[in-house]
Design brief:
Blueprint lengths: L1 H17 E17 L5 E19 L2 E18 L2 E3 L2 E3 L5 E30 L2 E28 L18 E11 L1 E2 L2 E16 L5 E13 L4 E2 L7 E4 L5 E4 L14 E14 L33
Antiparallel strand pairs: 1-2, 1-15, 2-3, 3-6, 4-6, 5-6, 6-7, 7-8, 7-10, 9-12, 10-11, 11-15, 13-14
Length: 309
């Protein structure tokens, strides 16, 4: 039993001596992408930013990281050209076709997310790799839609040989910029995580433990369908009550969207500063040399000896 106790104590001491604890602060820049099942919607690279607070446990080459993160993601998508051609009657009672067209449409969304990442990994400095998962909670979202719109009138062969497209005073014009702002909702997500890069010492703590700077590239892959197209009835609303106007809702917020399945993918770079915590100062033990002459009247060098030296 004594031997078993000694072995257990030795294992615990070894684990304590190799284990290190860190508090980390991270900042990231990313490019979010949204993938769907529609042929009329094309994903474009967006922009994103984030901050992370994490606890990291390190034992030899093993890493465990638990944290909380906040990110702003601003993905964008390109929407196919649209045309609108209602049959109308002008003020003189003459029937015509009111022609409207949209092109170069780009739909932006800006969403605030809260994440709870958990990752494990392997590190052999300076290189490291980590994998894990996180639950992502969608909060505030807004949208911005931009496009070029043109309008014209087609009277057929009644009075004109061609349609009218250059009469601004009558509401007919060539392509001009249009923009609309709105709101959108996304469902919560579960994302797989992978991160790899390098870890570098940037100084030492008061107890001689390295402070670390970690630079890496990461990817987040959404596993759930985040589409919630219940905010608006239609992605494009044409108004011809007085000339032609258009209101655009984000394509993923519209009930007539054919996106089907929507998933988030985020790729980016992250810098993380790691500060050691829970370290204790090492007590220095001063060994006093014994004084063999103390309290003794030893005159070792006052008397001759029989030594040949």
């Amino acid at each position: 039993m004594k031997r078993i106790r000694v072995i257990i104590i030795m294992i615990l001491v070894a684990q304590t001596s190799f284990a290190q604890h860190y508090l980390g602060f991270g900042a990231s820049l990313s490019s979010p992408i949204q993938l769907d099942q529609s042929e009329a919607i094309k994903p474009l690279f967006g922009v994103g930013e984030g901050i992370t607070l994490q606890y990291q446990y390190r034992y030899e080459h093993f890493l465990l990281s638990i944290g909380a993160a906040v990110s702003g993601e601003h993905p964008r998508v390109s929407v196919a050209e649209e045309k609108y051609a209602p049959h109308m009657i002008d003020t003189r009672g003459i029937p015509f076709v009111y022609l409207g067209a949209l092109k170069n449409r780009c739909d932006w969304s800006s969403t605030l997310w809260i994440h709870t990442p958990v990752m494990v990994g392997f590190e052999m400095r300076p290189f490291y790799v980590m994998v894990g998962a996180q639950y992502s909670l969608s909060l505030v979202s807004s949208t911005h839609q931009t496009a070029l719109m043109a309008s014209a009138a087609d009277y057929g062969d009644r009075y004109y040989t061609d349609y009218i497209d250059d009469m601004p005073t009558h509401g007919y014009h060539d392509f001009e910029p249009e923009s609309t702002k709105g709101h959108i909702r996304y469902k919560n997500d579960i994302r797989l995580l992978v991160e790899a890069g390098g870890t570098f010492a940037i100084g030492k703590s008061a107890y001689g433990v390295d402070r670390l700077l970690r630079l890496g590239a990461f990817a987040e892959i959404g596993m759930l369908n985040v589409l919630d197209n219940s905010t608006a009835e239609t992605k494009t609303k044409w108004d011809v009550s007085e000339y032609m106007h258009v209101t655009m809702n984000h394509v993923y917020s519209s009930a007539d969207s054919d996106a089907g399945l929507l998933r988030n993918i985020v790729v980016g770079i992250r810098a993380t500063w790691l500060f050691p915590i829970g370290e204790q100062p090492q007590k220095k033990i001063h060994h006093k040399k014994p004084n063999i002459h103390k309290n003794y009247d030893c005159r070792c060098f006052d008397y001759p000896t029989n030594s040949v030296f």
